[in-house]
Specification:
This protein is mostly helical. The chain contains 7 helices and no strands. Helix 2 crosses helix 3, helix 2 crosses helix 5 and helix 4 packs antiparallel against helix 5.
Length: 264
Amino acid sequence: MFDDILKELMPEGDGHFNLGEVLLFAFTVGLAVFTAFRSYDFINRTLPPGWEPVAYVGLTVMDGGFLIWALIIALSATSAVQVAIAWSMWLLDGLGLTLVVIADTFYYTQAGQNTVALSDTVSTLAAWAFPVLAVINAAFAILYKIYSPKRVRDRKKRQMEERLRHLEELGELQARIEERQAAIASRLTDQRMSMADLKTAMAEKLAELERLEKELALRRINRAQLDVRGGAVRDAMPVAAAVGNGNNNGHHPEEYNGLDFLNE
């Protein structure tokens, strides 16, 4: 950062200082020293006895923050978020520094009642502004580092990696689901084939049963026919015997020619 400041003081790069830049730099340093004394005196009066060294640390909030954020705007901030943070903090620190300088000035120049009342009001505002700005500076300094381009890139890279891992997990889950669906489809296909085989077997059994029933029916019919023929033979046998003995009871033998069916 100091090298960049020197480059600003020597823009031509030929080893000679730019007079305007040097005067502006000296003017800035002089004002910074003046406001630093005022800020130190005001901060020191707000601390308990024996805490004087802490007042030097407090200078980093007002004067230090005002200068540091200005240098960050000029030399360091790159992203839009960093520039917005730096400008916001520079303006807030400048406002707080102004209140502190005015309050410390009024403390030594109380000339009338109105001045005393105004001094109390400004002092109260400055007393509140100092701790509030201390916390805000710390918070925004952390935010400034969080939104540095490198950290933003790293954060986006982590987000992309996390998204890729999530997509990979979804892909694996989808693959498992498809594998399970394929297994279920295979089992259903096997079950359908088993059902088809069962239906075929049942159809064959029914056909066999129907064939057996038909065969049994035919056997019953044949047996009935045989029974009828056997009964007729038994009825015809006494008649044939009578004819053979000549005892026809007055009938002619020609009437018994109907017994020829026994020869069938």
